[in-house]
Structures are given as structure tokens and as C-alpha cells.
Amino acid sequence: MTNSAGGTGFSKLVDLERQQHQEAFTAPTSQYPHISAVIRFKMVSASRGIYKQVAPPHHSTLFRKNYTFLGVVFAGAFAFEMGFDNGMDKIWDSLNKGRQWKDIRAKYVQAADDDDE
Length: 117
Description:
The protein is mainly alpha-helical.
């Protein structure tokens, strides 16, 4: 499973990572005078972990084009807002049960009707 360059894709990836680590240690100190080699190594290692988490070039159909991505973001935000508002209203109503106008209205309306008669 070798390619025309004589190495597998995985070995090329390993070689690329080694090269990045070597560059981190051998970077001219004038470029990074305040950063030691150990810190540069940690920075490269941290960024390498981030890039491994990025999805392969097989994009979802929702995120291929900018306008579809924006549509998904706006629709998701709208749905989240509606769900969050309904959830918070239910929590608020349960915490304040018996103290809101909708809970005590019948008592006052009935009392007003009794006063009219």
C-alpha cells in the first residue's frame, strides 16, 4: 500500500509531525526570543491535537455552502430560543405557583362578582 513517492500516507503524516516538532525546537531564537524550546514544543503539540479533531474533507451537505450553513445556524438558534423560553417559563411557573395573576385571578373575579350583587 505504497504510493508513487515510496511511502504510505500514514508514514508521511508521521514524518510531517516529526518535521513540525523539529521546527519547533530549531526555530531561531530571534523569532521567538521570549519562548523557550519546551514551551514551543507544547504549543506545537497542542495545535496538533486540535487539527486531528477537524473533520476530514467529506463535508456534510448542511455545511458545504455558506448560505446553507447560515440557514442551519439561524434555524437552530430559533429552535433553541423557543425551547429555552418554554422551559424557563415552566420552571418560573412552578417556582411561583399560586403567586401569579393567572393563579389568583379566579378568586378576585369571583369576589368582584359577589360585590356587584
